[in-house]
Design brief:
Elements: H1 10-19, H2 31-39, E1 49-53, H3 59-66, E2 70-75, H4 78-88, E3 94-98, H5 104-109, E4 117-123, H6 134-144, E5 145-156, H7 170-179, E6 183-189, E7 205-211
Parallel strand pairs: 1-2, 1-4, 2-3, 4-5
Antiparallel strand pairs: 5-7, 6-7
Bound molecules: S-adenosylmethionine.
Length: 212
């Protein structure tokens, strides 16, 4: 009998990248995030170290680096990081970190310690982790942020059971951030989301910007 493949571990994500079963891939930064960073009155100003947890092929990290931030793309999938390096290269302003977001020792080994980043940019990492790990996600990123630091994120608020991608309910998610010690500056239905796989416009993404 075949052992069922784990959905969550690094090897499962490596497998998805190798096999091309990566339906989340946009091939570019998510348009609502790009638009916020480039045009929104609340957009954070560079410089500063910005972490992109679960960065995948690194499109958002590369966008941040091009905008003057020191971007740290973190992923526990070596396949994802190899793709990110191939697509975007690396340098002092764009680094790829191989670690599990939930392993503080591995994070520390990459230089990610308490208060060590000014910003966090979230895109489809939160929906990729088991919902039981969401409070650990929020505790971890809040701990890594310097006081006054920011978190910009695009969240998939769909009601379907199972995952990944795991769904969320917009008001519940906003409450979870508040309970984790974040101060909301913006929480709204995203505008200009990339189309779904059938080409129809997406209307189930929410954009948030918080301060620690
Ligand atoms: C759905 S993909 C999204 C990739 C990228 N953010 C994007 O939007 O194209 C989720 C990513 O999170 C990574 N990931 C999931 N759990 C992780 C963890 N505990 N630590 C680090 N990376 C993780 C996976 O390897 C995968 O690359």
């Amino acid at each position: 009998m075949n052992t069922p493949e784990p959905l969550q571990g690094a090897s499962a994500w490596d497998h998805r990248y190798r096999e091309g079963t990566d339906a989340w891939e946009l091939g570019e930064p998510a348009p609502p995030l790009r638009s916020f960073l480039q045009h929104h009155p609340l957009a954070p100003e560079p410089p500063g170290r910005v972490l992109v947890p679960g960065c995948g092929r690194g499109h958002e990290a590369a966008l941040l680096a091009a905008g003057g931030f020191a971007a740290l793309g973190l992923d526990f999938s070596a396949e994802a990081l190899a793709e990110a390096q191939r697509l975007h290269g690396s340098g002092p302003e764009l680094q790829w970190l191989h670690a599990d977001l939930f392993d503080p020792v591995a994070l520390g080994a990459t230089g990610l310690t308490a208060g060590s980043v000014q910003g966090v940019l979230e895109h489809t990492c939160f929906c990729a982790i088991d919902p039981a790990q969401r409070s650990a996600y929020l505790t971890t990123v809040r701990e890594l942020l310097a006081p006054g630091g920011w978190l910009l994120g695009l969240f998939w608020c769909h009601p379907r059971p199972g995952g990944p991608p795991y769904g969320a309910e917009a008001s519940t998610l906003a409450r979870q951030f508040e309970q984790a010690g974040f101060t909301m500056a913006c929480w709204e239905a995203a505008v200009g989301s990339a189309s779904g796989r059938n080409g129809e416009p997406r209307n189930d993404e929410w954009l948030g910007f918080w301060r620690r």
